[in-house]
Write a structure and sequence with these properties.
Length: 193
């Protein structure tokens, strides 16, 4: 993901816009259609959240998704860049039209190639999955993740994430029942009785 984020040339408008989309997809774990149909009024910089309107949500239920200060700053910068266009949408082509998911998918493949990543292994929804997995691996709650993703059923959220072997091992080391019974293995070992 880091290599992919480093691929867009942020000095070019389209690349910077795509960089903002990438950050938003990973941070807010949005579907590509949800991200690209965001309107300026859907972004609340005071609360640090975006509203996914019911007409664009897959579940047809609106939801409010938090975003980091970093993503907020990127969105603010992008909105300043696009003030000259007469559009209510956040993500615009260089001609001021709404960016389409297919256009972004094609551009994402080019960024993957530039980062020496097999383009067949990268697609927008993977960013949602990766964001969700990293959220859990960093200690986020599965219930909170379910709300952020907009899943009605927790089983879908569980199906959605794939914890790494390293994360499972680390979590096991920290929460093993044996630690409670015999103590943590991080204590110094006594040699003599």
């Amino acid at each position: 993901m880091k290599l992919l984020l480093e691929s867009p040339n942020q000095r070019k408008y389209c690349d910077f816009r795509d960089y903002v989309v990438l950050n938003l997809l990973i941070d807010a774990m949005l579907r590509i259609d949800e991200a690209l149909t965001l309107r300026k009024g859907d972004v609340d910089f005071k609360t640090g959240a975006v509203t996914i309107r019911k007409e664009i949500a897959k579940s047809r239920k609106p939801r409010i998704v938090p975003i980091t200060k970093r993503t907020q700053k990127l969105l603010q910068e992008l909105l300043r860049e696009t003030q000259e266009f007469d559009s209510d949408y956040v993500f615009l082509s260089n001609y001021g039209e709404r960016l389409t998911p297919n256009n972004f998918r094609q551009r994402l493949k080019k960024y993957a190639e530039k980062a020496n990543i097999d383009p067949a292994t990268i697609w927008p929804h993977l960013l949602r999955h990766t964001g969700a997995t990293l959220f859990l691996e960093e200690g986020g709650s599965e219930r909170h993740l379910q709300i952020i993703l907009g899943h009605a059923d927790g089983r879908m959220t569980a199906h959605y994430t794939h914890l790494s072997d390293k994360s499972v091992k680390k979590n096991h080391e920290e929460f093993s029942a044996l630690n409670t019974i015999v103590g943590s293995s991080s204590k110094p070992r006594k040699i003599l009785r």
